[in-house]
Each structure stands twice: as C-alpha cells, then as structure tokens.
Amino acid sequence: MEPREASSIAVVGAGPAGLALALLAAQSLPRARITLHDARPLEQDVSADPRTLALSLGSVQLLQRLQAWPAQAAQPLRCVHVSQAPPSWDADAVVRIEAAELGVPLLGAVAAYGHVVAALQAAWRARAQAEPERLRHAFGCAVRALKPVAGGVEIDAGTAEVHDLAVVAEGGVFAEQARKAVTREYRQAAWVGTVWREGAAPGTAFERFTRHGPVALLPLPPDASGPPGRTALVWCVPSADDPVQGLAPAQRAALLNTLLPAAAGRVTEVGPLKRFELGLNAERTLVQGRVVRIGNAAQTLHPVAGQGLNLGLRDAHALVQALARAQGAASVGGRSIDAALRAVEWQRAPDRWGMIATTDFLARSFTWHWPGVGAARGLALAALQALPPLKTVLARHLMFGRR
C-alpha cells in the first residue's frame, strides 16, 4: 500500500498546552491536517484572564521557538528561595537556586495565563491564515464525544469528523473534573490571588513550607497603574481547618507576614483571593488507542512545585517529535502512528510519574502529624543546600524535566 502523504490530527482544547501542540504540529508535521477545537468563541478576549503561570526555562524556550512568548508581559525568574517556617529542625534551613550559578540567563518566568494564551492564539491564527487548507479551527463549539473507529477517532462537535489522532488538552480544575484512574483528595485548599510587597529581592520566587502547607510568592511584571511589588500568591491550607477563610484582607496580610521569611519582604496589601480544592487526578497512561491526553487532561497535580503546565508542554513536544519521526520514516496514518504513540508513552513515563510522585509525597507530608516530620523536611532542605551537585540536578529537572 502506498504511504499516505498526510495525517489528520484533532486538538481538543485551546489553552496553553493545546495551542502549543497545534503550533508545534503545524511546524514539525508539514503534511498533517490539523483542526483545533474549543468551546469558547474565537472573539472572546482571553488576554484579561489574570491567572498566573510559572513557566520553566524549557517552557519559555519552547514558546520563544513558536514565536508566541509575551516577553513584555512576563517577569523573568533568576532565583528560587525555598525554606521552612519554624518550628522546624532548623528554622534557617534554606535552599537557593540561582540562574547565575547554573550558567543560564533565567530559571523561568512568571506570566498571566491570558497573556500566554493570547500570544499563542495570535501565532496560531496567523499560521492558519497562511495555510487555510491544512490548518483549521472550530471555536465556539464544544466537542461532545470521542469515539474510536477503525484506524482513527471520530470527533463529535456538532458534526462528525474522523481523524487519525485526537489530542485532548482540556483540563480544568480538580474540583470540577471527572475522576481518573489515579486520584487522591488532599483535604487541602489553595487561596490564589495577588498581593503587594515591599523590600523583596526582584526576580526571586519564594516557597515557604509551613505547618499548614506551602505558601508560594511569584513576582509579577510591574503594573504602571498600581503600587509596586505586585506578586502572585498561592497559599495552601487544610480544607477543614482553614485559617484564611474568615479573615479580612488586612488580617490576611498580617498572618502572611508571620509565615514568610524576612527575605520575602513585607506584604503590604492582599487583593481578592479565590479558593480551590486540591487533589491528584491522573490517567495511568497518556495514550488510549488513538486518543492522547496532555497537560491537566492527563494529570492534575498539587501546585507545590508549580509544574503542571510545564509537564503538559513537555508532553506536547514529545508527542509531536515522535509523530515527526514516524512521518519521516513511513506513514503517520498507517501502522507507524501506533509505534510513535507507544514510544511517547515510554519516553514520557519517567518525567511524568517522577513529578506525580514528588508532588504527591510533598502534598501528603503536610497532612502528617507524626513527630519529626517538620524536622525531616528541614534536614532535607539543609542537605540539599549543602550538596551543590544534587541541587543542580534538581534545578535542571525543574527547568527541563527528566531527560
């Protein structure tokens, strides 16, 4: 049989992971027909979405290659400061990971979800306009069902279309998701929003382990219309004994200042915060027949390491690279696509399950009330700081994933 010269790929979900995958496929699979689906209208202004994304250096580099990096709206991260609040084995146990020590310009960057999606969507639309016969999108119409058929997948989005492959990148938040094969409720909630600080080192992200859970501060780009020191906050607390729920903004600022290290500066103002329940919700495999799930559609993690989107972007990159190798070797529409999908499953397993296990262990450790748990965390931080080679391995894993 003659090899087919083109494949047909449906991407379900036009968030950062889905848009990045669609652009990567358009770039690396020149014979592929790609259709991007999303329930939101194309005209909807996504740029105003204020949710914060912590992007690793690998993710920044990927978006730069796709010409979809909103550099002017991003805050580079050049240092990560991790510590544990007293009482602990050592109240001063701190790990500092610095870009200069690793020989890289930055560790990553912080940007608003809306700015990242808007840049990716603009790049996709420009590419689709240049190749309308090959690249299409269907916004404003939700995908109702995916049905396996011989040699492909049927997509029901008002009308039925058959594609060789469907990539699902629609994630959502833990509380709203149907439960997957691997799930755990942490009985923790995250308060997410914006605070303002004074006296903090620029370009430094802070993670503070407290007895209730981790508190993360991510510096945001300056806002000319507002006060300086704008910072994204992720504040994790027990769901049943929430110390934040009934507090006024000034009281929240005062409580935060008792939890944070001196190096983080002083919180002067706390904006409106939104509460999210936290948990683990993951598929055992990325691939099911001719359907591949990436990002939050494959694994929703605790935010303790801030790696959810970075993991999804690495999923997308690995999938497209495997398909490109298969297309170069034979036919992506024939048997080779299944070999490519098997390769992706094996290739992504160490990085994916390593990150799932790490975030799950850290999240559950805050629910343990055994004697010595806090001391063990403090000892681990001190050991990590004292062993530069181990710290370098961890830093490169966070920047680029497990390779």
How is this structure best described in words?
The chain is of the alpha+beta class and 403 residues long. 33% of the residues lie in helices and 30% in strands. The chain has nine helices and 20 strands. Strands 6-5-14-15-16-13-17-20 form an eight-stranded mixed beta sheet. The protein has a six-stranded mixed beta sheet with strand order 8-2-1-12-19-18. 46% of the residues are buried. The model is unreliable at 1-6 (pLDDT under 50).
Q: Which labels suit this protein?
A:
single chain, 403 residues, alpha+beta, FAD/NAD(P)-binding domain, 8-stranded mixed beta sheet, 6-stranded mixed beta sheet, 9 helices, 20 strands, 33% helix, 30% strand, globular, disordered N terminus
Task: Summarize the structure in short.
33% of the residues lie in helices and 30% in strands. The chain is an alpha+beta fold and 403 residues long. It is globular and about 60 Å long.
Secondary structure layout:
Blueprint: E1 8-12, H1 16-28, E2 33-38, E3 52-56, H2 57-65, E4 74-77, E5 79-84, E6 94-98, H3 99-102, E7 108-112, H4 113-130, E8 135-139, E9 145-149, E10 152-156, E11 160-163, E12 165-168, E13 182-198, E14 204-209, E15 214-219, E16 230-238, H5 249-259, E17 266-282, E18 287-288, E19 291-293, E20 299-300, H6 308-329, H7 335-365, H8 373-386, H9 388-400
Parallel strand pairs: 1-2, 1-12, 2-8, 5-14, 12-19
Antiparallel strand pairs: 3-7, 4-7, 5-6, 9-10, 10-11, 13-16, 13-17, 14-15, 15-16, 17-20, 18-19
Helix pairs in contact: 1-4, 1-6, 6-7
